[in-house]
Amino acid sequence: MMNNMFDLTGKVAVITGASGGLGADAARGYAAQGADVALLARRKEKLADVAKEIEATGRKALAVQCDVADEESVKNAVQEVLNKFGKIDILLNNAGVAYAGSVEDMSVEDWDKAMDTNVKGIFLMSKYIVPQMKERKYGKIVNVASVNAIVGDKTPALVRHVYNASKGAVRGLTVGMATSLMQYGITVNAVGPGLFESEMTADTLFKEEKFMQMYNMLCPASRPGQRGELNGTILYLSSDASSYVTAQTVFVDGGFTAV
Predict the structure, then answer these.
(1) What is the model's pTM?
(2) How many whole angstroms separate alpha carbon 72 and alpha carbon 105?
């Protein structure tokens, strides 16, 4: 009988943006494979239900208030996780925001907010977690990019230039971190989701009927991603099944970026 290469028993995973959507689903996926989880989000109260659900399965869950764009908040959150679990094996940088607009009409404030959360957030989380991974010669970092790192949209209502820029930066940061950290037993990869329903997309893209029709026509899968369909890739990149895989961005998009 083959061993479960996705087994995460004894591992501790930190998930940012874990209060709902893809982050909460990933936390459930980690717990199902035996990991204890630290759930980070700006609104701690929204983490309570996810934490209770995970604890009901017999795994440990810690809810931590954290604004990934604020260095002091990140520093305190990471220390709280280390005080509770003593180590961090896995970091899923999932927190992200999206603002609509083209470069000529977007406010500098919205640009900065998006870049701070989507890029600076990964930098800060990694800054305070990587040192203990290096000491232990082990770590799995998974950054959430997007198909929008390599594709855009000409439809005015769907133009999101800062989202394109920030997710492209996530890919670049992933490569840079991966190539220097592999020697310490730390792999760094990214997932690039296509269209999934989440808190970010439910009231925007999913309500644009023409966009949904176009997306379903162009996407080889003829539909958006469904709940849980990102978990397999995240678990693969977070487990020893991917011990020789680093610096990669795996697009989970039903084939959208191939057409």
Answers:
(1) 0.96
(2) 32
- Residue 29: which of 228, 186, 237, 247 has the closest Cα? 228
Q: How far apart are CA 106 and CA 162, in angstroms?
A: 9
Where in the sequence numbering do the catalytic residues fall?
Answer: 163
Q: What share of the chain is helix, strand, coil (3-state, %, to 5)?
A: 50, 15, 35
Residue-wise pLDDT for 7-45, tens only, equals 999 999 999 999 999 999 999 999 999 999 999 999 898
Residues 6+ apart with CB under 8 A from 36: 11, 12, 13, 59, 60, 61, 62, 85
148 in Cβ contact with 163 (< 8 Å):
yes
- What amino acid is encoded at 112 in this protein? D
> Among candidates 103, 115, 121, which has minimal Cα distance to 40?
121
Q: Is 251 in a helix, a strand, or coil? A: strand
Strand 90-93 with 186-193, pairing = unpaired
Q: What is the pLDDT of residues 246-258, one digit of tens each?
A: 999 999 999 999 9
Task: Show Cβ contacts of residue 236 under 8 Å, excluding neighbours closer than 6 positions.
Answer: 6, 242
Task: Judge whether 170 and 143 are in contact, CB under 8 Å.
Answer: yes
What type of residue sits at position 253?
D
Alpha carbons 103 and 98: distance in angstroms, whole number: 14
The whole-angstrom separation of Cα 6 and Cα 207 is 36
d(CA 122, CA 188) in angstroms, rounded, equals 12
